[in-house]
Structures are given as C-alpha cells and as structure tokens.
Amino acid sequence: MSVPFKLASRLDPIKPSITLAVTAKAAKLKADGIDVISFGAGEPDFDTPDHIKAAAQESLGKMVGKYTDVAGIVPLRKAIATELSTVHKTTISPDQILVSTGAKHSLYNLFMALIDPGDEVLIPAPYWVSYPDMVMLAGGRPIIVDTRAEDDFAVDPAAVEEAITPRTRAIVLNNPSNPTGAVYSKKQIEALAQIVLKHHLLVISDDIYRQLVYSDAQYHSIAAVDPHVAERTILVDGVSKTYAMTGWRIGYTAGPLPLIKAMSKIQGQSTSNPTHISQIATLAALTGPQDCVAQMRKAFDERRQEMVKLLRAIPGVTCREPKGAFYAFPDVSAFVGKKTPEGSILDDDVQLCDWLVEVGKVAVVPGSGFGAPGFVRLSYATSMKNIQEGVSRLHKSLATLS
Ligand code: PMP
Ligand code: GLU
Questions:
Q1: How far is the C-alpha of 172 from the C-alpha of 106, rounded, in Å?
Q2: What pLDDT shows up at residue 16?
Q3: Which pTM was predicted?
Q4: Residue range 63-287 in CATH 3.40.640.10
C-alpha cells in the first residue's frame, strides 16, 4: 500500500538540476558498461592538490570531529576576508564572512535571507541552472534578461534597466559565466555598477570561476568600482572549481553584516557548520602555494582551445570563444527539427541531447536548462583524450541527421 503524499506547493515550479541529471545519466550508462564520454557536470577532473589533502589528513589527529562556529572557523574566515579584501579592493572583516556547504549552499542561504514573496531578481541569460529555481524556492520571481551570442553574451545595460520594477531587489552577476564562458569587460562592469547605484539594487556577484580566465581576458570586480557599489555587493565564492575541491563542499559569502547574520541564522537552523575537515582543507588551499591553480588553469586553457577548434570544425555548429570558466557553449540550433537515422524527429535541444547520449555515446547539457534553447554546454574540465574522442562522436553523430 502506498501513502499518497501531498508535497509542499513551493516545489511546484522547481525543476531538478539538469547539469546534475545529465551527469547522473552518463554515470549510470557507464556503470552499465556502456562507453559514454561525459561533458556534463562542471567539475575539474584533477585530484585535489596534495598539500591540501595533507593538511586535512594531518588534522585528523586534532579533534576535527566536533561542531565548529556555525559561520566557520575563525582562521578560515580571516583568510577569506583577507583574500576577498585584496581581490575586491575593499575592507571585509571576518564577521562579514559566512562559510557554507558549497557556493550553492551560500546562494541558497542568500536568497532565503533576502527575498520576500514577489520580490524580483534579475538574472542575465544564459544563466547557471540553479539561480531561477533558488529564487523561486525563496518565493521570489526570477526576471530573465536575455543576451545574444552575437554580442558574446554581453549584458545590455538598457535591457537591464528596462527589466527593473519597484519589486527588483538584486541582479545576479556570474563572472566568468557558466554556461557561456563570457567574462565581463571593465566597461560592462562599470555600466552595471551605475545601474545598481541609480536603482538602489544589490548585486550578487558569483565569482566561483574568477581565477579561471584565459587569453587576454581579465576578471574585473564590481565591488572594486567604488565604495558605494561595494556596499551593495554580495560576493559568493568558493574552492570547488579553483582548487579541484568540488566534493569537499565549501563555499562562502561576503556581504553586509546584517545579511551575513541573517544567513548564519538560516544556516544555524538548518545545516550548522560546514564540515570541519573541509574547512581545514580550504584554509590550506587559500593560504598554501598557489602554483597548482596556475597549472590547472594552463591545462584548462589548452583543452579550451582544442575543444573550440574541434567544435568549429563541425558543419552547422557555431561556437563563440569562451574566455573563462570551463565550458564551451555552441549553437546547435541547425540540428533542431532534424531526423535521426532511427527515424525520430529531434524537436528541441533536450531531445537532441537525449539522442546524443543514447546513440552517440556523448553527454552534453541542453541549453534550455540555462535559458538558451538551441545551444548545448560542454565542460572541458576533462582530459584531452576525452575531448578529442567526445567531440569526434558529436561530429559523427550530427553528420547522420537529415
Ligand atoms: N555558481 C556557479 C556559477 C556554478 O557553476 C556552481 C557549480 N558548482 C556553483 C555556483 C556552486 O558551486 P559549489 O556548490 O560546488 O561550490
Ligand atoms: N555547477 C556545476 C555545473 O554547472 C556542477 C553541477 C551543479 O551543481 O549544477 O555543472
């Protein structure tokens, strides 16, 4: 006998994370013995650097099995405050830092602390899959501001201003962007900063990829534009991508004290402190040698160039050059509506991706999940061999569509 469950209606608009779903599907096929190449989740294939693991290992003899301060251990909050103060050219105190279970958790706490029912949050599209759903879980309204591939996915300040209403609380700035790899120029950052000041908005600056920029691109901080903007900026950052530490689950927020206190209250009533041993590993990551970051960045850059070159060689595919993060985001709209050799019509990018993984044995994430139908996202945080073999599979599969 099964009990009928009435689930909370706040879940009605919420979708599962498509990035995690695609990755899980590829992992299941692999576990079933099927040789699938996955460009799914954005997760470095490198192991966490040895000195970080050694710090965690060493701490095992020192009572790490206890609760810590809800907001994180003081030495870690100090180290984060020091680093973020330098990067963003502003003064951030350790009290203004909340360490959470991944940057995803930081963002969740943030929206829960900030958003009242009906409040609006501006989200430039293509966007990372979880922003709109987190805003909705908090009772808010995600307001999508579209950008165009032709403009290298740059956010048009006029489009942002047009989307502002009396209910607008904040704008999300993901720089570099997941999924497009776009990096905001200094001029674009300054233009957005002016809008933030003019309309008294908050900026949620998700900087999780800030150290992964390539070629001539540079990361520019919106908080650094001027102290009035810094007061309105909430910084979300973490170690998952930069130090290959996705599984350690540490992210952090820096922001105005009342907001950080409110977020700590939520964290104290839900998860409490993030894992102690992971906090110790994060402290080692932030205060230890940084050459591991440069090495991984160099490898990502080489893979980025190879992937873009191979994608551009596929007839019908166009791909802008991603300048940051570790994703390529090609336009595959030319293949939507085409027929497979098995006889079915691929009505949209979701069906295209389903067919690619099942028949082509290559997993990519549909652009619809990022608010960009007709595109697909490929993570190049994987080996050169996988990139070459995986994009070759994509190439061959797409060539069979008619
Ligand atoms: N923001 C962006 C843009 C991301 O791509 C991710 C992906 N993991 C996160 C936040 C969350 O990172 P984590 O929870 O692993 O720290
Ligand atoms: N952020 C990564 C991605 O976009 C990991 C998966 C997730 O948390 O969404 O693939």
A1: 14
A2: 87
A3: 0.96
A4: yes
